[in-house]
Design brief:
Blueprint lengths: L1 H15 L8 H11 L7 H13 L5 E4 L5 E4 L7 H12 L6 H12 L4 H10 L12 H13 L2 E10 L5 E5 L4 E9 L2 E8 L5 E5 L3 E9 L21 E10 L3 H8 L3 E5 L6 E10 L1 H8 L5 E5 L1 H18 L2
Antiparallel strand pairs: 1-2, 3-4, 3-8, 5-6, 6-7, 9-11, 9-12, 10-11
Length: about 325
């Protein structure tokens, strides 16, 4: 009975107290009497139980309230409340998780909080009731990570959208060695190396199903480190130092995309503009990225990339000529 009582006290302090909400010995006594049917537990016994909890390594503290009354509490429980709230918010806005999965995950975080903190979580987070995909991203990620850890090739069906927006899955023999999971632009991708030719392939993990491990490999290939800013998930054809003239209002946005590979300087000949130079991965998607900024971004150099941009724009213009 003694050990059971101590566990009840620890559970109560864990769930119902934090730095701002302590519990007196009388409140703990009432809890034991009403919730656990442990009657006639003395205040002195409860105080000794708390001392035993402290000796066992539990961080039980107290602050002194009115009438010199001690209010006991257990402070931080692994995560701070702000950290838990951030994790819960991240789960709640994840578009790959069903409402039921979100509720199960959030409930696991709630047990790390006091009851007062749980009420704050409920008041801040609303679960989306929109329709969600039928796949389970967590299961896909778990399988992919396990196969990478086991150093095995990977087999799976891959889905592509049909004219009605439905995913049609294709199964084929693959000689892919999975190397790395990457999160980019709110999606999870799997980077693989094709064992037949050494090329790098990229797959969206949410479009994979029936994932299984293939034959073992002695060593996972090392993916090359990027030499500059990469603007999407696919491998660029090459890297080049590109000079751009941009409107100053776009400076924050471009520096976020280009990171430490970029440097900026005032454009003396064009007030309101900035010259940005950056080492950038060049592919078709680089030109699409420039196009989305319209007349607010101009490629100044190198000449071959500027010429390729001009050729693409002329091809687009032909489609709209009457």
């Amino acid at each position: 009975m003694e050990h059971e009582r101590i566990l009840y006290i620890l559970d109560y302090l864990t769930r119902c107290t934090d730095e701002k909400h302590g519990a007196s010995l009388q409140e703990i006594k009432r809890y034991l009497e009403s919730e656990t049917n442990m009657e006639s537990v003395s205040i002195l016994t409860i105080r000794r139980d708390i001392e035993r909890l402290e000796c066992a390594g539990n961080d039980v503290r107290f602050h002194t309230a009115a009438h010199n009354t001690r209010r006991y509490y257990i402070p931080q429980k692994g995560f701070t409340f702000n950290e838990i709230r951030f994790l819960v918010d991240s789960v709640s806005i994840n578009k790959f998780l069903s409402p039921a999965r979100k509720r199960r995950l959030i409930h696991k975080f709630e047990v790390l909080c006091s009851e007062a903190q749980v009420r704050q979580l409920i008041s801040r987070v609303s679960l989306s009731g929109r329709e969600t995909p039928s796949y389970d991203l967590l299961e896909n990620l778990e399988k992919v990570h396990a196969i990478i850890s086991d150093r095995r090739k990977i087999q799976f069906e891959y889905g592509k959208s049909d004219l009605h927006g439905n995913l049609v899955y294709y199964q084929k023999d693959r000689e892919m060695i999975p190397c790395k999971v990457v999160y980019f632009n709110e999606r999870f991708y799997l980077k693989c190396v094709d064992a037949t030719n050494g090329s790098i392939r990229t797959y969206r993990i949410d479009r994979m199903r029936r994932i299984s491990g293939g034959e073992s490999v002695r060593k996972l290939p090392q993916l090359p480190k990027p030499e500059g800013a990469v603007l999407d998930m696919f491998e660029p054809e090459r890297f080049a130092v590109v000079k751009l003239r941009i409107k100053r209002i776009l400076l924050d946005d471009l520096l976020e995309h280009l990171g430490d590979y970029a440097r900026a300087e005032d454009d003396a000949s064009n007030p309101g503009s900035v010259i940005v130079s950056a080492n950038i991965g060049i592919s078709r998607n680089f030109y699409r990225w420039v196009m989305k900024y319209g007349e607010n971004v101009e490629i100044l150099s190198p000449p071959d990339i500027r010429d390729e941009m001009q050729t693409m724009l002329e091809e687009i213009l032909k489609k709209y000529k009457k």
